[in-house]
Design a protein that fits this description.
- The protein is mainly α.
- The chain has one domain.
- The strands form 2 sheets. A two-stranded antiparallel sheet has the order 1-2. Strands 3-4 form a two-stranded antiparallel sheet.
- Strand 1 and strand 2 form a beta hairpin.
- The chain is globular, with a radius of gyration of 20 Å.
- It starts with a helix and ends in a 7-residue tail after the last helix.
Length: 249
């Protein structure tokens, strides 16, 4: 699967760079003794591009961790990928179906700086809020056409998120997944060769697939039918090469 992983990352990277050229580029903003890059317009399109870029780097990192057998850390990144995908769907649906005040609130907080005092972070009075994950999931569930009713869809997302959150916060049940062996011990150097390896190799394929679909929704949000068709074509290729069909999920 290494070749397919890399091929997918290369495809995603190319689409990210392409969409980045479809929006107003970042500008230099004075910061401390130098400058930082920021999007001046702070649009929903620019937000999608940023989320896509972050998805690519996170998938690449999860792949490296998986190959090293560091499955606890892979799972923690997959929890981040869950939120990236939700955010991309939330923003894309906002463009496809019409943005709501909830999208405006999200963008205000998304673009807000971490600190409002460049000289001292301790003196900063900045407080960045967040649109609740439940509201984002509820919005997505109401729009998506699937066999789940909205409340079930929200609960499913919450359950998956809660499971992977245990890897981020190092809850005991998740930590104990790395304990075992003929002479039971903590596998702190990785878990390659253990029963967990195949599980996590399969798991990351799901995240690569969901990542591809996030790019498809983004193409739709940008109103680019040709790009959307290209993404769907690549999805078909991914399914064929992975030997798995996701059409029912």
């Amino acid at each position: 699967m290494k070749k397919l992983h890399q091929e997918t990352l290369t495809f995603m990277e190319g689409v990210t760079h392409y969409l980045a050229k479809q929006v107003q580029p970042p500008v230099k903003v004075p910061f401390d003794d130098g400058f930082v890059f920021r999007y001046k317009e702070k649009t929903i399109f620019q937000a999608i591009v940023q989320k896509l870029a972050r998805m690519v780097t996170c998938l690449r990192s999860a792949k490296i961790l998986m190959e090293c057998g560091l499955f606890q850390d892979q799972a923690a990144l997959q929890r981040m990928l869950d939120e990236f995908q939700e955010d991309i769907l939330f923003l894309s649906y906002g463009l496809i179906n019409g943005a709501l005040p909830l999208h405006d609130e999200y963008l205000i907080e998304f673009y807000k700086e971490e600190f409002d005092d460049q000289e001292s972070a301790m003196k900063s009075k900045q407080k960045r809020g967040m649109v609740s994950r439940r509201k984002i999931r509820a919005y997505i569930s109401k729009i998506e056409e699937n066999k789940l009713d909205p409340s079930t869809g929200v609960e499913l997302s919450r359950t998956i998120s809660k499971t992977y959150s245990g890897f981020i916060h190092a809850a005991s049940p998740q930590i104990m997944d790395m304990f075992g062996g003929m002479t039971p011990h903590f596998h702190v150097s990785g878990m390659r060769g253990t029963p967990r390896e195949q599980e996590y190799q399969h798991d990351i394929l799901n995240y690569f697939y969901r990542g591809i679909m996030s790019f498809g929704f983004s193409a739709k949000a940008f109103g680019n039918q040709q790009l959307f068709d290209d993404v769907i074509k690549f999805r078909t290729h991914f399914e064929k090469q992975s030997g798995m069909s996701y059409q029912e999920t």
